[in-house]
Structure formats: structure tokens, C-alpha cells
Amino acid sequence: MSGSVGFYSEGCAIFLHVIARGKIGRSPEAELVERYEKRLSWPVKLTELPETGGRIPEPQSPLKTVLLDEKGKNLSSEQLADIVGRWRDDGMREARFVLGAADGHSEQERAEADLLLAFGKATWPHLMARAMLMEQLYRVTTILAGHPYHRAG
Ligand SMILES: C[S@@+](CC[C@H](N)C(=O)[O-])C[C@H]1O[C@@H](n2cnc3c(N)ncnc32)[C@H](O)[C@@H]1O
Predict the structure, then answer these.
(1) Alpha-carbon dihedral of residues 146, 5, 19, 9, nearest 10 degrees?
(2) Where are the domains of the chain?
(3) What percent of the chain lies above the pLDDT cut of 70?
(4) Cis peptide before 57 (omega within 30 of 0)
(5) CATH 3.10.620.30 fits 3-145, yes or no
(6) What distance in Å separates the CA atoms of residue 67 and residue 110, rounded to the nearest whole number?
(7) Residue 21 burial (CB < 10 Å; 0-12/13-18/19+)?
């Protein structure tokens, strides 16, 4: 079963849609996901899909798609904020961030994505990657807002 497991909307900004495979249930990772989801002042939605199959929700067009993939680009938080900020300023309505399960993403999904984003070259468990992504999305929005949460190194 797929379904939306959270929706917090506030302010006018690009809609952040996290699409993640696998059930997070009640877990330490779920607590982290919820913590950053609640802090985000941009509209954010989390759609959970089964490990395989499931229906990918219809996009809000125009859309940009980011695949979380260890073979993707290692970007600094500021670089990611620049990209997301540009998409917002260009009038994108949705930026979706897709996390795979044990087998990752298909070659077709990789080819169709606008950005492959890596959190380093190591392979992380998908639930940890989900928590890390929510933190990065929060960080990105604070960078764009000039909020002091992010302290550039
Ligand atoms: C256990 S990993 C899948 C590994 C799989 N061997 C593959 O080919 O991608 C599950 C998911 O977590 C995310 N993930 C794991 N490590 C990552 C990393 N270093 N950077 C970005 N995402 C990562 C990706 O979305 C990945 O599809």
C-alpha cells in the first residue's frame, strides 16, 4: 500500500515531495523524519511506497525530480540550496526527491531524473537516507531564508 504519511504546508515556496520506498513504522529514523518535517516551513509531503511496485503520484507540473543515489553528485548543502532556489525562482511547482529500496533505482529512472544526488559514496540504509534527506531539505530552506541554522564551514 502506498499513501501520504505527512503534510505540513505554510508559506509560498516550491512543494517538496519526498517519495520513499519501504515502511518506516515507529522507529528512531521515523522520529528524525518527523522532527525535520515539522520544522520545515515550506510545503512538504512524504509518500511511502512499497519496496517494489506501487503507484507513483501524479506530479504537479512543472516538476523537477531528484533521485537519491550513491552514484550521484556529491553536492554541498549550499550547492543544493542554489539548485532548489533556482527551481523555485524559475516557477517549478514541485521538486520530488525519490529514495530507492534495497535494489536502488532502475536505469530508466536514473536517465529521466533531473539530478542524481549522493550523500557520499557509502551506501546508507534507505531509512537512514530518508532521515538525512529530511534534514538536508530543512537545511536548504534555512540557507535560502538566511536563517542561522546552517553555519558554513
Ligand atoms: C540500501 S540503498 C540501495 C543500494 C543499491 N545497491 C543501489 O543500487 O542503489 C537504498 C536507497 O537509499 C538511498 N541511499 C543510500 N545510500 C545513499 C547515498 N550515499 N547517497 C544518496 N542516497 C543513498 C538511495 O535512495 C538508495 O536507493
Answers:
(1) -30
(2) 3-145
(3) 92
(4) no
(5) no
(6) 7
(7) buried
The three cell numbers of residue 18 are: 519526498
In ligand 1, which atom is closest to the CA atom of 100?
27
- What is the Å distance from ligand 1's center to 132 Cα? 12
Using CB distances shorter than 6 Å, the residues near ligand 1 are 68-70, 99-105, 118-120, 122-126, 129
pLDDT in tens, 14-39: 999 999 999 999 999 999 999 999 99
- Res. 11 pLDDT band, cuts 50 70 90: very low
Q: How far is CA 103 from CA 5, 70, 111, in A?
A: 23, 12, 16
Stretch 124-133: mean pLDDT, rounded? 97
Residue with cell 533556482: 86
